[in-house]
């Protein structure tokens, strides 16, 4: 347990996001889906995750009609659900405190939807 406390929240989240087995459905090639800030993730944490996600085509950014970026970085719901699940698996209750409750609920809802889709 001492190793978990030695990591910062950002480091724990980066570690769990990177531990997700990526698949094509996780990549975001322009779908407008939720942004981390919509869930209350701290800007500094979100920025680190976005930098990591951009390297793996996991985030998209959107521009206004004027061609200006509005700094909205969207993630695929399936990836966010997998990343939250992985984070809780890796860090348990200590990791739960890293995540806004709204992000946990969103991930649980989308995890259930994908499980129902597989069952059909």
Structure description:
The protein has one domain. By secondary structure, it is mainly alpha-helical. A two-stranded antiparallel ribbon has the order 1-2. The N and C termini lie far apart (40 Å). Helices cover 56% and strands 10% of the residues.
Count of discrete domains: 1
Q: Report the sheet with the most strands, covering strand number, pairing sense and barrel closure.
A: 2 strands, antiparallel
Detail the poorly predicted runs.
116-120
Number of alpha- plus pi-helical segments: 5
Gross morphology: globular
Observed structural traits:
mainly alpha, 120 residues, two-stranded antiparallel sheet, 2 strands, disordered C terminus
Short description:
This protein has 120 residues and is mainly alpha-helical. The protein has helices spanning 2-6, 9-18, 43-55, 77-96, 101-119, and strands at 59-63, 69-75.
Architecture blueprint of SSEs:
Blueprint: H1 2-6, H2 9-18, H3 43-55, E1 59-63, E2 69-75, H4 77-96, H5 101-119
Antiparallel strand pairs: 1-2
Helix pairs in contact: 2-3, 2-4, 4-5
